[in-house]
Specification:
Strand content: under 5%
Shape: globular
Low-confidence stretches: none
Helix content: over 70%
Mean pLDDT: 84
Number of helices: 11
Order of helices and strands: HHHHHHHHHHH
């Protein structure tokens, strides 16, 4: 029960508290309609990426804390985005928030149901070798998806390279900035064994889920950012290692 409460608290802090703080600051600065702010808002409102537990393992830490946040965060996402979409005028009104929540809820439910049904029908029991093969297939599939998400970058490199560079810098700043901030905060108020997985999750969010729920995600700016965001995400195990190596998990 204690683990569930702490996980729920962190999910709400990450996916609800941080976006609302960003929106409040943007309102105060008069930037709440800025594409940069809206993009950052969607990133912070998204649940962890599916690769977060794997990143934790690659950095020498347990995957379970990241997996708990991934599971609960994805489950609660249709609910946590309601106040964010409602309060942000750039994302729509209450009806738009409700539509986004319903669309995401149905999409996630369908994906999970298909996954469990497929496993139950075709392969209810798997040996270790088959599990490794499946992991390889999943890795290849993810690679193909990542390449697809980066498709908007190539044509823009020739048309507006400066814009691509700007979005790339923003993607690195947002991702690594969130990770470093969470890593420092967790030093004071979090479990030291969970500090690195929690920090990884803070910056690596599955913002691509909003492609089915928000018209803003179809804009050129967001699509360029989405492609650029893949770089810091998959470079996390390499570039963040010097920072995370200072954490002794015993």
């Amino acid at each position: 029960m204690r683990i569930f409460k702490s996980t729920l608290t962190l999910v709400l802090a990450y996916q609800l508290g941080l976006p609302l703080l960003l929106l409040l600051a943007a309102w105060a600065a008069g930037l709440h309609h800025s594409p940069v702010v809206i993009t950052g808002l969607l990133v912070l409102a998204a649940p962890p990426v599916t690769a977060a537990p794997n990143m934790s393992v690659m950095l020498g830490h347990a995957p379970e804390p990241a997996f708990r946040l991934l599971t609960l965060g994805t489950l609660l996402m249709p609910l946590t985005i309601l106040p964010i979409f409602w309060v942000s005028p750039a994302l729509g009104n209450w009806q738009a928030a409700l539509d986004a929540a319903v669309t995401l809820g149905l999409s996630l439910t369908a994906a999970v149901a298909i996954g469990f049904a497929g496993r139950a029908v075709f392969k209810p029991k798997m040996c270790a070798e088959e599990t490794q093969v499946l992991d390889g297939v999943i890795s290849v599939t993810l690679a193909v998806i990542v390449i697809g998400l980066m498709s908007a970058i190539a044509p823009m490199l020739s048309k507006a390279p400066g814009q691509v560079v700007a979005w790339l810098l923003f993607a690195f700043a947002l991702n690594f900035g969130a990770q470093i901030a969470a890593f420092l905060v967790m030093k004071r108020c979090g479990s030291q064994k969970e500090r690195v997985p929690f920090a990884i999750v803070a910056g690596n969010r599955n913002v691509a889920l909003f492609l089915v729920a928000s018209s803003f995600t179809q804009t050129p700016e967001f699509l360029i950012f989405l492609g650029c965001y893949q770089f810091p995400m998959y470079l996390t195990p390499i570039l963040m290692r010097p920072i995370y190596s200072s954490q002794n998990v015993g």
